[in-house]
Amino acid sequence: MKRIIHVCQDIRGALKHWDKQTWTQVAWDNKMTIDQVKERFRIYLFEGKKVIPISEECEGFSYIDGCPGHEVKE
């Protein structure tokens, strides 16, 4: 059996390592300013979240551990 694991983004990693171009793109994609996106990420941390989903819907997604993985029949 195959196993699918959906991609997620570490929030602290983004706040620490993303460059201006990355922040600009994420802000534009979400119709926000860079400051609004950064504030949203800080709010996520305040709420106790460590990661956020990047890809499609993920059943069982945890904001602490990310995707639990999903078995797929071949």
Overall geometric form: elongated
Numbering strands along the chain, what is their spatial order in the largest sheet? 1-4
> What oligomeric state do the depicted chains represent?
single chain
Mean pLDDT: 94
Radius of gyration, whole Å: 14 Å
Helix content: 40-55%
Structural class: alpha+beta
User: What gap, in angstroms, lies between the N and C termini?
Assistant: 6 Å
DSSP strand content: 15-25%
Number of helices: 3
Order of helices and strands: EEHHHEE
Tell me the total number of β-strands: 4
Give a concise summary:
With 74 residues, this protein is of the alpha+beta class. The chain has 3 helices and 4 strands; from the N terminus they run ββαααββ.
3D structure, described in words:
This protein has 74 residues and is an alpha+beta fold. The protein contains three helices and four strands. It has helices spanning 11-17, 20-29, 34-46, and strands at 2-4, 8-10, 51-53, 70-72. The strands form two sheets. The chain has a two-stranded antiparallel sheet. It has a two-stranded antiparallel sheet with strand order 2-3. Helix 2 (20-29) crosses helix 3 (34-46). The protein starts with a strand and ends with a strand. The mean pLDDT is 94.
